[in-house]
Amino acid sequence: MASFDPAEAPDLTDEELKTLDDLKSQLEQMGRERGRLIPMLQFVQDSLAYLPPPAIRLVADHLEISASEVYGVATFYNQFRFNPPGRHPIKVCLGTACHVKGGEIILENFERKLQIKDGQTTADREFSIDRVACVGCCALAPVAIVGETLYGKMQPSKVEGIVLRVKIEKEQQERETRQHEPNLPTPLPPTSE
Amino acid sequence: MSQTSPHRYRQLRNEADRRRREWNESALPKIHIGMATCGIAAGAQETRAAFEEALAEAGVPAHIRAVGCCGHCYAEPVVIIDHPQSGFPPIFYPEVNAGKARMLAKLFLKEGDPRLEHILGATVANDLIPSVMEFPRFNLEHRLIMERCGRIDPEDIYDYIAEGGYEALADTLGRGPEDVIEAVARSGLRGRGGAGFLTGRKWALARAAAGPAKYVICNADEGDPGAYMDRTLLESNPHQVIEGMIIGAHAVGAGRGIIYVRAEYPLAVRILTRAVEQARALGLLGQGILGSALDFDIEVFQGSGAFVCGEETALIQSIEGFRGMPVHRPPYPVAGGLNGRPTLINNVKTLASVPVILQGGVEAFRAVGTEQSPGTAIFSGVGSVVHPGLVEVPMGTSLRTLIFDICGGVPKKKKFKAVQIGGPSGGYLSGAHLDTPIDFDSLAQAGAMMGSGGMVVMDEDACLVDVSRFFLDFTQKESCGKCTFCRIGTRHLLEILERLTQGEGREGDLDLLRQLSEDVKAGSLCGLGKTAPNPVLTSLRYFQDDYEAHVKEKRCPGKMCRPLIAYYIDLEKCARGCNACEGCCPVDAVFITRDRKRGIDQSKCVKCGECVVACPPEYDAVRRVSPPHLAPVIERPPAEEKDPKS
Ligand SMILES: Cc1cc2nc3c(=O)[nH]c(=O)nc-3n(C[C@H](O)[C@H](O)[C@H](O)COP(=O)(O)O)c2cc1C
Ligand code: SF4
Ligand code: SF4
Ligand code: FES
Ligand code: FES
């Protein structure tokens, strides 16, 4: 079950504050029945990538229930998160097949490399690490997903290279943005294996 | 009502047939790429892009069609190429990465050479090349429910209709609901959600329940962390499930349907949403379905990832907007379910079986499987097998056939140790049980259970204490917390197992595990708590030696529990100057010995096993031992000692 400590919630960025504002009117279209609570939380998390305290209050006010009631439901489910994910979320599969093939060691290596624990986000919001249960390609176990790219048959020694690759790509992108206008999206890195 | 349902259906079928004919008659080559989650994970998107690019370059026109998953996980990305002009039958290509796709586009599609060294086989029997049907992985399976998975385009409803889809529904609508229920009951179909409850009986109860507004819910929560049959079915052939739901609605008299699917399955959510829209557009959902008196519509609800929400009463709580906590039954959902109304809840595979039964006939269905468990069972067979993937076999097939013939047995000449069936609720079976037939009752008798249909094969290197710890860690986190025995009991069980895997097991721990397991089973309200101890109990029963070794010798026979193992480098075998292990170690634990060989600093080593992989096979110098004191002590030369890092 997701845990939550309001003291850990970071301040919202300007962009997030604006999204929050837009959400207010969008929720109006979603009805006020209690049964809408979970779809509503999903919708809010889709927009903000996590559920910061003001978003919880927004939903609570809209449904006319208490914020603690909303927290009670949201923390029950694994889908909801209360801290912002990194720009490159790392998901390490710890489903049965990946566990048997050493998924935990992969997780530890990411944790060691980035100096954060599973469930946390790096201070610069670049990376976050989460464990997930079976991403559905057990034949490739152990599996990790970084951003949009899935890495199958993972090995602990690949961790360093993957993190480095994301960093290099980011630098490259920044350099290109500075050089050329307009800003072209860089292609996703190819899937490994 | 001016038109009868068979007539409406005929119109849809004619259109579907016309489209199918057009597709079949096209002389262009047809490329089918498996693009379910599994295929995409293996790189199917890059494969598709490579085909498109290379075909454009070569100036070869061709049809590319995204299909679902055929279940052959070991072969992903899977591509089937039908190139009539080449003179070859349709060919199944395994592991088609972007490079292979470009090669096939040029050499096969343009120049007509199928590159036989890359094929698995033809998809049909022919005189030119061997057919895949000669392999046990194909011919021992019996595809009854998954027959169309990986063949049709899941995003095109006409593709399903052209295969006879929705015909069972059209037929059914002309028959009385009792008639339909009677047929389902006679088929002997049992719920595929785990417990094996008779579907016909459940439908009759839901029909008999009073109330004008009833619901049909499709349970696609699939929470077992190692099973993905339901996801595959939904992604590969959503309409078969929807058709089953509509037939269910007609049978029990329901007006609204909900598919409760995990939000972690975004592709399944997308494909289902689209399938529902298409069905609605063709009058297969909504008011007066196919011109009959049936009004029924379906909505897709995304489950938020709590294992316990697969339990039917928790699932209902969750749809109502509450924490997914099971509630006491009775009332059963068939009497008082969602919003207090009669609710029929069935698993994805159960619902997908219904059109097959009604279309093919009750006798044909009963002809497959056993008397008490008719039909087929679908498993996701993973772990230490040569051909992991989804398999559909007649109920009653032996575990031996499933593991050794269909899945190809244990790779790397290792020995089979155990098979875990049913995920967190299921149990282990040992080599002595390999002749157990797979059906609800035989598995339960042996101590495992059908459960989710997850199946993990373990070889001699697996530690069952550790895998049991893994499952308990899962159930402990997923316990909803309502029952003390489930909430606290699973935590205690986990603590003991953790202790064992860390070499701190105590005298009496095994008895404690047994006693506690029985208590948790007895003191829990729902299936989660009632079955959570199964992995512990069955591993204790069949593999007590594993536990004893952990407690008495602090030894892990499978060499999996990291606190109980050590790595060392065999100096006899280590080649001077080879630096493979040093380079790969994530924590700089490898040092250079006095005679320029390599040693492992036990105080730094995190036991990741990388150096074993890195050490070139001709030296094969890294050893793994348990208990750790078996590793010889090799001193790090003082000169090599680096300053502690800041
Ligand atoms: C902890 C727990 C998890 C369950 N998870 C699922 C699930 O993921 N899918 C499912 O169909 N049934 C699941 N069930 C069983 C359901 O409660 C219910 O029996 C089933 O959906 C009925 O469908 P059937 O009659 O078609 O089998 C679960 C039960 C328990 C106790
Ligand atoms: S057995 Fe466990 S999961 Fe089930 S209701 Fe009780 S506490 Fe909740
Ligand atoms: S097992 Fe891992 S940590 Fe230990 S020496 Fe080998 S590579 Fe380094
Ligand atoms: S367990 Fe990791 S992909 Fe299935
Ligand atoms: S190939 Fe699709 S589930 Fe494995």
Tally of DSSP β-strands of chain B: 18
Number of domains of chain B: 5
**Distance N to C terminus of chain B:** 83 Å
The CATH architecture name of the largest domain in chain B reads: 3-Layer(aba) Sandwich
- Main-sheet strand order of chain A equals 2-1-3-4
Q: Helical percent range of chain B?
A: 25-40%
Number of domains of chain A: 2
Query: For the largest beta sheet of chain B, what order do the strands appear in spatially?
Result: 2-1-3-4-5
Oligomer: heterodimer
What is the ordering of alpha helices and beta strands of chain A? HHHHEHHEEEH
At CATH level 2, the architecture of the largest domain in chain A is 3-Layer(aba) Sandwich
The name of the CATH topology of the largest domain in chain B is Rossmann fold
Report on the architecture of this protein.
The complex is a heterodimer of chains A (193) and B (646). With 193 residues, chain A is α+β, with helices and mostly antiparallel strands. Chain A has two domains: 12-76, Arc Repressor Mutant, subunit A (Orthogonal Bundle), CATH 1.10.10; 88-174, Glutaredoxin (3-Layer(aba) Sandwich). Chain A contains seven helices and four strands, in the order H-H-H-H-E-H-H-E-E-E-H. Chain A has helices spanning 14-28, 37-48, 53-63, 67-74, 96-100, 103-114, 156-179; strands at 88-93, 127-132, 144-146, 149-151. Chain A has a four-stranded mixed β-sheet, with helices on one face. In chain A, helix 1 packs parallel to helix 3 (53-63), helix 2 (37-48) packs antiparallel against helix 3 (53-63) and helix 3 crosses helix 4. The two termini of chain A are 33 Å apart. Chain B is an alpha/beta fold. Chain B folds into five domains: 22-134, Glutaredoxin; 165-365, NADH-ubiquinone oxidoreductase 51kDa subunit (Rossmann fold, 3-Layer(aba) Sandwich), CATH 3.40.50.11540; 376-462, Ubiquitin-like (UB roll); 465-553, NADH-ubiquinone oxidoreductase 51kDa subunit, iron-sulphur binding domain (de novo design (two linked rop proteins), Up-down Bundle), CATH 1.20.1440.230; 565-641, Alpha-Beta Plaits (2-Layer Sandwich), CATH 3.30.70. Helices cover 39% and strands 14% of the residues of chain B. In chain B, helix 19 runs antiparallel to helix 20. The radius of gyration of chain B is 28 Å and the shape is globular. At the A-B interface, helix 2, helix 5, helix 6 and helix 7 of A face helix 2, strand 10, strand 14, helix 18 and helix 25 of B. Bound molecules: flavin mononucleotide (FMN), iron/sulfur cluster (2 copies) and FE2/S2 (inorganic) cluster (FES) (2 copies). One FE2/S2 (inorganic) cluster binds next to strand 11 of chain B. One FE2/S2 (inorganic) cluster is lined by residues 93, 95-98, 134-138, 141, 143 of chain A.
